[in-house]
Structure formats: C-alpha cells, structure tokens
Amino acid sequence: MKNYIKLLSENLFSELKEGENLSFGLHSEESEFIRFSQSKVRQNTSVQQHELTLQFQANNRSYKSTQMLSLNLDSDTKSLISTVHQLRQDFLDIDENPRLSKMQNNGLSEVIKKSQRPSTPDVIKKICSQFSDSDLAGLYCAGPLRQASVNSEGQFHYFENDQFFLDYSIYDGPHAAKGFYSAEKWSDTEFTNQANQIKNTLSLLKKPSVQIQPGQHRTYLAPMAVAEIIQIFNWRAVSRSAYEQGFTPLKKLYTGESLFSPKFTLTENNELGLNSHFNSVGEISPKNLPIIEDGQLKNFLINSATAKEYNLVSNNAEAGFWSNESLRSIDVKAGSLAESEILNKLGTGLYLSNLHYINWSDPQSARITGMTRYACFWVEKGEIIGPIQNLRFDDTLYNLFGTELNDLSANQSTFVNTMTYQKRSLGGMRVPGIFLNKMNFTL
C-alpha cells in the first residue's frame, strides 16, 4: 500500500499548476468481522476499503473531496486527476479562508506495527471452545488499519497497525457480564483468565439484588467504567479552541483555583501505537504530551488552525468532534492498588464494573452524569453481597479525580476504539481502576 500511494501521488502532483498545492489522507483497512451469538459464529465478513481524501489549495482557498480507491493504478490516477480538474473549477465559487493553514513539508516517516494473533479459524475455535458453556454474544474484529498523509510539498507519512479486539457479553437469563480483550500479542493464558473472571462475575449476579439508596457511597470503578468516564475529556474539555469559545469545564484547573489529586496523571501517549503518529494534515504529534500531570493542567490540545486564530503555539493536535481538538491515545497513570486488595480496601461500598450514558450535566462546573450498567455490586466487609439495581450518578471531575480519589489500581487495561460505522477507527486508551472515598448517586 505504501508503494502504491507513492506512485499515485507522483502521478497526481505532476498535474498541478504554479501556485497550487494538493494533499491527501488515506484510510485503508482489510478487516475481518466475526459476530457471535450463543457462543457460535453467526456472521463472518471481510471488508477491504481504501478511502482517499484530497485537499486542493490555491489563493487562500481550500476544497476537499473524498473517493474510494480501486487499487488499479491507471484507473485511480485517471479518476483522481479528473477530480483535481473539477476542484480547480469549483474554486471560482469559494471565498478565501482567513484560518487556512498552508501546506508544509512536515517530513517523512513510517511506522508499521504487527500484532501477534492466531489465524481467524484458530481464533474462532478458541473463542467458541472457551465459552462453550456460556451464552456469548459479541464481535471479533481484526486486520490492518492504515493511514497516510502526503502532500505536494514533499511530505510523506505512513502508519499501519494490525490490531484486533473481542468486545463481548455473556448472559444467564436476565443477567449479563461484559468483557473486552485486545492486546499487541494474543495470550491464551490472559484470554482464559479473563474469560473465567467474567464467568465468575456472571455467577455473582445470581445473588439476590440489593436496593441501594441514593447518596454518597464508597466506590471502586473498574477500568472499563473508568474508560467510560475518561471519554468525557474528549467532549471538548481539553480542547483549546473550545476553551477560547467559552466551553470551560476545566477553567478552575487551568487557573489553579482547583486541582485534581496529585495521584492523577493523564497523557496523550502516542508511543502506545493506538493511533497514527501524525495528525490529519501530517504534523508529527509529540510522543508524550502531558495533559494533566500530578493533578495540574499542563496542556490543552492545540491544532494549527486554533494556534493561528488565537496567536498560540500548536502542539499538533487533531481536530475532532465539532472541529475541536480531541485526544487520540489516552494514557492514565496507574496507582499502587493491587487487584487482590480491592474488595478488602473497599470494605463496604459499590463495585462498579461498567457505566454508560455519560454526559455533561453542568459542563461549566465539570459536573457529569451517567448510569451503572451490567455487573455492579454492593460490597460489605470486603465481600460481594449481591448485584445492585441501576443507579444514576451526578458528580464533578474535581471530586472524581480530585478530592475523593483515594488510589488507582496498579494494573492498567487497554481499550482500542471499537467504532466501525462506515469504517474502523484508530485510537483508544490505557486506564487503571479508580478507588473513590465517595461518589454521589442521585437516583
């Protein structure tokens, strides 16, 4: 694919006139999708698609066009040259863009990661065999994802990651427990241990349910629950453009009026290899960019357009939802709490495996809300008493990651992006569990 893109770019750039620039971004995938129900394969599908997004620039104007590649060089070249000619004509109806960042040569780079995983037939055997005594429903997804950023100034960046994940639940009547497995290297031991843990969790759901009254409760959030909460940072919280526009949930953290716990550190860690090492315009991202370090806000995410508009220095962030910057490879620093000590340290309180429906309830004060989901339990004297009925929480990030943060687990879990709408997505996070002195539940 890398060599094909090089040949294609040479053909396209030779068509440019003086004063014109052209860049393109590639999204390429060869994906296997295997859906399970009742621990059997119900759908086995493979998808190959290669999408190219062209950006044509001239006279402070820019125009984009997206189309699929056939991987026939002559056919693709002819089609794309025709597109460039059409964009050149469409420029007559476009106004100048005062925020336009002109194309630059951001260098050459290449990162290719290969995960070590069994063949697809072997994976199917392992999953079906491991859960032959369970009712499993889920999705296994694997295959190479590729991104490239190339422009007529000489820039050429290429990224490829052959990753996999199994996102699943197991059921017993009305009860369900959720699991997720992804790694750089498939481990039968790790997969078996996790499967047995999920089965044990499901068996605990057979205990009589416990009605918990609203209020503040001592709480442990497992990594999957933490991952749901951490995603709220990508809802404009750490975007400098959103901050300049008045969306300021972390204003007190920025001014130093309030701090998170010194135990809390959140980093954009591109060394995890969960996403490309460059953004959509080909600017190289820092290997590690501290966002919140030891409880203090160190950096907002700033892309080139934001830097130009507000006279700031860009840290080569990516523009996400609402054109605001967003995290792509999140890493929350682990703590000291061993997994074997969690229930004893919790004593009496809530053990929450999963959360969902996370949203801002009052973004200007960093207050969020959400619901418990799947396997969540009431614990007394270090022993699980029974599953709880669903609860709604409403609390601030300053409490969850600040005053009420007691410790974080020593182990971290990795969750790759499972978005498959129209195409697979790169990105993800590595997070520990979090132990809270108290968490506020309202319903």
Task: Characterise this structure.
With 443 residues, the chain is α+β, with helices and mostly antiparallel strands. Helices cover 21% and strands 41% of the residues. The protein is built from 10 helices and 20 strands. Strands 8, 9, 10, 11, 14, 15, 16, 17, 18, 19 and 20 form an 11-stranded mixed beta sheet that branches. Strands 1, 2, 3, 4, 5, 6 and 7 form a 7-stranded mixed beta sheet that branches. It is globular. 40% of the residues are buried.
Brief synopsis:
The chain is α+β, with helices and mostly antiparallel strands and 443 residues long.
Notable traits:
globular; alpha+beta; 10 helices; about 450 residues; about 40% strand
Cα gyration radius (Å) = 24 Å
Class from helix and strand fractions = alpha+beta
* Strand/helix succession: HEEEHEHEEEHEHHHEEEHEEEHEEEEHEE
Percent of residues in beta strands? 35-45%
- Distance linking N and C termini: 53 Å
Basic shape? globular
Count of helical stretches? 10
Largest sheet: 11 strands, mixed
Average pLDDT reading:
94
Uncertain ranges: none
Topology, number of strands: 20
Helix content: 10-25%
List the helices and strands and how they pair.
Layout: H1 2-13, E1 21-37, E2 40-58, E3 61-68, H2 73-90, E4 108-114, H3 120-130, E5 135-151, E6 156-172, E7 175-181, H4 188-204, E8 215-221, H5 223-230, H6 240-244, H7 251-255, E9 266-269, E10 288-293, E11 296-297, H8 304-310, E12 318-319, E13 325-326, E14 329-332, H9 342-346, E15 349-362, E16 367-380, E17 383-387, E18 392-396, H10 397-403, E19 405-416, E20 428-441
Parallel strand pairs: 4-6, 8-15, 14-20
Antiparallel strand pairs: 1-2, 1-5, 2-3, 5-6, 6-7, 8-20, 9-10, 9-14, 10-11, 12-13, 15-16, 16-17, 16-18, 19-20
Helix pairs in contact: 1-2
